[in-house]
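S1.2 Input.
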Amino acid sequence: MTEKALPSTPPTQPSSISASLPSSLSEIPGRTRAALLQEDVAPSPSFHVDLVFAFVSRLSTSVTKKLPKGIASTSLKDRAAAATFAQTEFAALLTVLKGKGLRVTTRKAKVEEKKGAKKGQEEDEGKVWVFISATEELVESLMQKEKSNDFLHGVAAAPPSNNDAITPAERLRLVHELVTGDTEQGGLAITPGVYPWSHVQSIFALHDKAVNDTWTHTWLGKDWTVGLKLKPHETDLILKHFGPSLALYFSFLSFYTLATLPLSILGLLAWSFLPTGSYSSIYALAGSFWSIAVVEAWRIKEKSLATKWGMRGVESEEKWRAQSSAAARGRVWWKRDLRVLAGLPVLLGCATLLFGILTGLFVFEAFVTALYDGFGKEYISLLPTLLFAVIVPRILAVYRNIAVRLTDWEDHATEASYQNALTVKTFALNSIVAFGGLLLSAYAYIPFGDQIMSFVDVTIFSASQDIQDFGGSASEKIGEVGEKLAASGTPPPGTGGAKAPRGRGVINDGRLQAQVFAYTVTNQIVNAATELVLPIVLRWYAEWKAGDKGKDAQLKKDLDEKRSVERIDEASFLQKVERESMLPEYSLFVDYAEMVTQFGYVSLWSICWPLACLPVSINNYFELRSDALKVCLNVRKPIPSRVSTIGPWLSAMTFLSWLSILTNSTLYSLFHPTPHTPAGKGFHFLSTSQHPPHDHSSHASISGTFYPLLLVALGASHVFLVGRAAIQYVLRKVLWEGSEEVVMGRKREREVRGEYLERHKGEVTVRRALGDRVERVKKSVGEDRFWEGGEGAEVTEVGGGWKME
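S1.3 Output.
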C-alpha cells in the first residue's frame, strides 16, 4: 500500500479548540485488528506521521503551578480567559510548525464520558491530536547540516555527502530535534508542559508494527542463542529503527549477560564443594577482579561500537538544552560547580533521613519483632514490610522532585549534562535503598547483634525506668545493665538463668544469605512480572472496561453504511494513536538502573552466597527478550538519540567495582572460618578471647573491630589500583589495539586525507604552476639585467696583457 498523508485542515480561530476539528471524524469509534481483518481491509494505515502532539484544552494543576505569575493570574481567571489562552497557544503551535516547513494536520481525540460530568465540562477537557510530517527535502537538509557539523567537530571521518540513505531512526531523531531543540541551533524549543507550550501534554512517535513483529518474532523464536551475542543483522535492526541509544543498551545487556557466565560457573563450584557460608578467599578475590574486568572490558566494547556506528565523539557536538538560560551557555565551569556544591547539603540531608528510616525499620524488624511476645505476635513481623512499602516510595518520590528542582536550578547548558546530573542524584539514593539492608546486616546485625538485642531488650521491654534513662555509649549502657542485673541477683547472660534478657541466642546467622537470595532471585521474578505481565493485564482490563466490543459493533454498522477504505484506515489509525498515547514513556534510566543495581548485588555481596550470579545469568537471558517485548508492547516508541557511551552508569559501575574489593575483603576478614569457629560462624576480629563468637560470655569490641577492618580496606584499595591498571593494560592490548575498529578508523582517516588531496590536487597544481611561472619571469628579468652590464673598474687588453682602469 502506498503511503499517504492525513488530509490537512487549515488552522482557524474557533470558539473552542475542539470546534476547529471535523466533528464527524471524532464520531468514528475505534476498531480492533481482528475485526478489520474479517472485513478484508488492510488493518495497518499508511499515513506517514513523524510525531504526534497531544494538545489539551485544560491545564493540570502541576502545569498551572509552572506558569509565570502574570500569565496565570490573567489567562486563567475564568473559563473564557482560559479558553482564549488555549486557542492562542493552539494557533501559535500550528504557525510555528508550518513555519519550519512541516506538514501539519489535526484531529479531535476521543473524549471519555465521565459519570456526573457537568454540561460543557467534556468540551473543557477535550484533547486534540496534532500530526506533523517532514518532507524529504527538509529531512535531507537537516541531515546535511548535521553531517557538516559532525565533520567539523571530528565526529565523522568522512566529509558530508548525499550517498548515505537516511534511516527511520535518523529521520525521527532529526524531526524531534527540530521540534524540541533550542532556537539558537535552529529548533522550535517546544517542551511539553512548559510555558509558552503549557497545553502541549506530550510529544510522541508511533510504533511501526511490522518492525516490532520482526524483532519480537526473531528474539522469541526457536534459536535460543539469539540476543546472547548480538549478530550484525540484530544490531542493525535496532540501530536502524530505534537509534544508537537503544542499540547500545541491548549491546550492554548482551555483553553483561555473557560476562556473568564465568562467575556463575565459579559460584556453582564453590557452592557445591565448599561448606555453607565458608566465605572463600578464592571466590572473594575472583569476584573482585571479575567486577573490574567487566567494567574495563565494556569500556573498550562501547568504544568499539561507537567507532563502528560512527558515534565516537558525538558528545563534543553540544546540543543546547532548550530550558537552559542564556547565561548558562557562557557561564564558566566553576560557577555551575558552585551551584552543584550548594545543593549537596540538601541531598546529603535526604540521604541521611532515608538511611535513618531504613535503620529504624531494620531494628524494628530484626530485633523488636524477635523480642515482642504480646498480642498479635504472629502479625507484628509484617508491620516493618508494610511501613517500608508505604514510607520509602513516598520519600523517594519527594526526593525525586527535589533532585529535579536542584538540577533545574543548576542550569545545565546541555541536555546530556542535565541528564547525567539527574541520573547521579537519583541513583545515589536508590542505591541506599538497594544496599542499605545488606550493609546493616553484614556490619551491624551479625557482628554486634547480641549486644544490640540486649540493648533493645532492656531499653524497650524492661519495666525499670532507671535502666531506660541511663546515659553513655551503647557499650557502656550494656555494661551498666549487666551491673544492675548482677546487683539484683539476675544471672549473667549466657548462663541459662531464667531472668536472662530474652534477646540472647536469637540472632539469625543466615540472615545475610537469605537477603542476598531475596534480592537476586525473588526480587527479579517480581520485577519481571511487574515490568512485562502487569502492563499487559492492565491494558486488557482498560480495553475491557472501555467496552471495545460495543465500539466494534458500532463501527461495523457505520462501515456497512459507508464502505470507504480511507475512512476505515483513518479510524484504525486514530485508534492506534489513542492506544499508544495511554502508554508510559520509555525510560532508559529504569533499565540501566536495574542492571547496575544487579551488578552491585553480585560484585558486592555474592561472597555471602556464591550461587547469586547463576540466577542473575538466567534472569538476564530472559531480560533480553522481555525488554524487547516491553519496548514493542508496553511503552511508547523510544525517541532515538546519539550516544557513544552509557555515561554515568559506567562511572557507577566503576565505583561499585572499587567498593566490591572493599566489601569482599572485609566480609572475608569478618566471617571466614577460624580454628575456633565453624564455616560461616567466625568473626576473626571480633573474638576477644578464645571462646567461640557466639559464646555470650564475651562481647565484640566495636573499636577492636573497626580499626583492623579499616586497615584491610586500605590495603584492598591499593590492590584495586594495581589490579585495575594491570587489567586495563592487558585488555587494551588484547581487545583494542589491532582490532577491526582501530584498523577501520585509521583506514577511513587515510582515505579522507587522500580524498582531500585528490580533490585539491588540480587547484594546488595550477597555483604552483602559476607561481613558478611568475617566479621564473621575475628571475629571468633580474638575471638578464645583471649580466647585461657592470659597474666599477673597466678592464682592457694592452700589448698582450690586461689593464684595469
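S1.4 Remarks. The first strand starts at residue 51 and ends at 56.
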